[in-house]
Amino acid sequence: MNHACNAIKLIMRKLELGLHPEKTKFVNLWDGKGGFDFLGFHHRRTMQENGKGKIYPTTLVIKLKEPDGSFLGC
Q1: Are 36 and 42 within 8 A, CB to CB?
Q2: What does the longest C-alpha to C-alpha distance in the chain come to?
Q3: Which of 3, 8, 17, 21 has the most CB within a 10 Å radius?
Q4: Is this prediction's pTM over 0.70?
Q5: Of 4, 67, 55, 54, nearest to 45 (Cα)?
């Protein structure tokens, strides 16, 4: 994880951008347990089967809801 963090910081520095220390969170998507919220959607890695029976990794994207049950941004 430390290697990934250093790589991202290097890329961001080259782009003259920065990571907000309180808002930036690194999550492990490989095990399918972690996920993150971004722009009104929750992203999480999952496995999916295609029509031919092949199983492959994909990203599950779920639109987040407001406490009143309405969807964010609607």
Answers
A1: yes
A2: 46
A3: 8
A4: no
A5: 55
Q: Decide: 44 and 34 in contact? Cβ < 8 Å.
A: yes
d(CA 16, CA 10): 10
Contact between 45 and 59 (Cβ < 8 Å): yes
- Give Cα separations from 65 to 8, 19, 20 (angstroms): 30, 27, 25
DSSP states along the chain: -HHHHHHHHHHHHHTT----TTT------TTSS-EEEETTEEEEEEEEE-TTS-EEEEEEEEE-B-TTSPBTT-
What would the pLDDT profile of 16-63 be if each residue is shown by its tens digit? 998 888 888 888 787 777 788 888 888 888 888 889 999 988 888 888
